[in-house]
Amino acid sequence: MKIAAIFKWPAAIHEGNGEALAFVDERADEKQRDALLKIMTGQDTDPFATMFAVYASTVTQMHEPVFTNVEFEVDVDGRRGRLSVPGYVETTGEPIRNKVSGEESRAQIVLPDGFEYEVADIGSASSRTTGGPMQVDFSDTYAQFANLHLNSHGVVRG
């Protein structure tokens, strides 16, 4: 099953007042939908054990979830990705590039005790909403590519 979301804040994330729109794979049955929404909102984890719980704590307007087709492809090592929720949002990600030569560059964030991941590759992303209650349009902005391995207690290490 696939899940995705659009988050939007009027200022810094920690200042709150964010809004969110969750997308859940249309193939999910009622029990799976409930479980996925609980995970996405941090209700099925230790307090603040995952980024889902942290982000949810900053959201004051949670739009009704949409049960739809979620297309997601990612190559973490290649630093490329694509998210499409038809009628709602289109996102693409790619490697950052050397400003002089245009060649792909590699930069990483290493957080051995991070609460989202241990290693993330930095990239560039563009996102645009095509409908729905939230409007965003970003081109060539910051992106991260990381393998996430989480359970209800946070990052699974080792």
Strand content: 35-45%
| Tally of contiguous helical segments | 2
Specify the structural class.
mainly beta
Mean pLDDT: 94
Share of helix, binned:
10-25%
Order of helices and strands: EEHHEEEEEEEEEEE
Q: Runs with pLDDT <50, length 5+?
A: none
Largest sheet features: 7 strands, antiparallel
Measured distance between first and last alpha carbons: 25 Å
The total tally of domains equals 1
Broad shape:
globular
- Rounded Rg: 16 Å
What would your notes on this structure say?
With 158 residues, the protein is mainly beta. The chain has one domain (3-155). The protein contains 2 helices and 13 strands; from the N terminus they run E-E-H-H-E-E-E-E-E-E-E-E-E-E-E. Strands 5, 6, 7, 8, 9, 10 and 11 form a 7-stranded antiparallel β-sheet that branches. Strands 1, 2, 3 and 4 form a 4-stranded mixed β-sheet that branches. It is globular. It starts with a strand and ends with a strand.
Would you spell out the secondary-structure blueprint of this structure?
Elements (H helix, E strand, L loop, with lengths): L2 E6 L9 E8 L4 H11 L10 H6 L2 E4 L3 E3 L2 E5 L4 E6 L3 E9 L6 E2 L2 E3 L8 E11 L7 E9 L4 E2 L2 E2 L3
Keywords:
seven-stranded antiparallel beta sheet, 44% strand, mainly beta, globular
In short:
The protein has 158 residues and is mainly beta. The protein has helices at residues 30-40, 51-56; strands spanning 3-8, 18-25, 59-62, 66-68, 71-75, 80-85, 89-97, 104-105, 108-110, 119-129, 137-145, 150-151, 154-155.
